Amino acid sequence: MRWVAVWRRNFLVWRKLLAASVLTNLADPLIMLFGLGYGLGGLLPSVQGMSYIAFFAAGTLCSATMFTASFEAMFSGFSRMHGQKTWDGMLYAPLVIDDVVAGEIAWAASKAWLSGSTILAVAAVAGLAGSPLALLALPAAFLVGLAFAAVGIIMTVLARNWDFFSFYMTLVMTPMTMISGVFFPAEQLPVPVLAVAQALPLYHGVQLVRPLVAGRWPQDVPLHVGVLLGYAAAGYFVALHFARKRFTA
Amino acid sequence: MSVLACRGVCKRYGGVAVVDDVALQVAPGECFGLLGPNGAGKTTTLRLCLGLTHADAGEIELLGEPVPARARQARRRVGVVPQFDNLDPDFTVAENLLVYGRYFGLAAADIAARLPALLELAGLAGRAGSRIDALSGGMKRRLTLARALVNEPQLVFMDEPTTGLDPQARHLIWERLRRLTHEGRTLVLTTHFMEEAERLCHRLAIMDRGRVIAEGSPGGLIAAHIEPHVVEVYGDALDAWLAPARTLAARIERAGDTAYLYATDPAPILAALHGRPGLSYRHRPATLEDVFLKLTGRDLRD
Asked: Which residues of chain A does B95 touch, with a Cβ-Cβ cutoff of 8 Å?
């Protein structure tokens, strides 16, 4: 549990910069949600038996969680690792790189979870998530956060400079958002594209969260949870491998 | 019983031996200096001793714990002042100490109890709430030192503790470091300020190209490696004067327009210089810097 000290360090910074942090994390997804949801939603009768904005709210919850986890793990993480040398300071103490990686992943997942849950709260207030089942979207969002935090930290410990992240953002995250059922049902995609989406974590997050927000029990829960946990665990071990190489070589 | 002991330690990067068969022994309560030009392997040696980098060969024991196997346990009782400050810019002075103490598993109340003494030591009493970017370079350095002491370490590693500081700030750090040794703590510092090493260190090792090339007390190294008197001579008439004067000195080094004459008895040299037009000179006792330059050469290291 030594990683908790790492988590608490990041939490304290977040608490001090609360206003700016919350604003930047939430303004974007909420503007998208209500802008696209009402604007585009007005043109559509319904999607999968729900209003477009309700459909899109679940997708936004997942994509905002993904983006928050990834940004925190990559950009803020790289700044702590490389620019500020905060990780070096931790490693002089009785912490090892495993603790730092675990603490960073847990922190990025926590911050992402907060983004997801705030969007859920806004959706509930707007009458888009009325069922008690919607509360189970909270642990689901944490799993999404964990998966993307772990993958994000891999990118961080591999990165030599900031530009490195734009490859992952442009080539992986943006297309993944398009094909994972955030904006429209993934099932309408060509089969090979759908297969790609199904191999990626965001799709499984959406498959869990959307029915829960709508008040229905999702299908194939063990599969979706398993994929998200699998990405989190595999991401942790891969990140650890490269972090050890980078720090103790 | 030594606080730090290593032998046969090697570390290679890309086929180049950065640390090559290094052996060191540091006794409790000692201030031990690691001297060397840039790139001599001082920082890598510190990192190896802390278990932050793993050696390719050799044995290291830190506070009785084998490194790297149990380096984490050893680091509970070790403080580190890195070469470049890495204080948390988002935190105040006090928060930096609090958060750092938590990395050692210390309770907030225990850290808070140590805070006044740490701030006093850092010369930052009354600055607990200051932001890091409001501190001068010397203040940051002292706060980094206080941070390294948050866990009451037996041994403190310092990588170039006063590089980049003005003389006032440097003297204050020296005074604090002497205070630490008086408290019975062991210090291991790297430096390339010979004055710093001479003033602070009981014993030191000179490193060059990854190897320890000399070891001993500052006075002992001077006595063992160099003549006790140095006469520095410069001026337009230097070459003409130097040719016949060569036999007066045990050893002569030439750097640019200055000749360094090393001698056990300086009287003949001073007599030969007396009243010579076109020459200036300075007679001084030999210092550690002379030993250092003799052993590591005058070539630039970049």
From this structure: 12
- Compute the distance between CA of residue B161 and CA of residue B275 in angstroms, rounded to an integer: 44
Task: Give A-chain residues touching B156 at CB under 8 angstroms.
Answer: none
Q: Is A167 helix (H, G, I), strand (E, B) or coil?
A: helix
Query: Is A8 in Cβ contact with B75 (below 8 Å)?
Result: no
Q: Report the CATH number at residue B204.
A: 3.40.50.300
- Residue B241 structural domain: 227-285
User: Does residue B189 sit within a domain?
Assistant: yes
B91 CA: distance to closest CA in chain A (Å): 7
Q: Which ipTM did the prediction report?
A: 0.90
Residues B62, B187, single domain; the answer is: yes
Domain assignment of residue B53, yes or no:
yes
Q: What is the 3-state secondary structure (H, E, C) of A77-110?
A: HHHHHHHCCHHHHHHHCCCCHHHHHHHHHHHHHH
pTM for the predicted model, two decimal places: 0.92
Q: Find the CATH number of the domain harbouring B260.
A: 3.30.70
CB contact under 8 A, B104 and A94: yes
Backbone torsions φ then ψ of B167, nearest 5 degrees: -55, -40
* pLDDT digit string, tens, across residues B138-159: 999 999 999 999 999 999 999 9
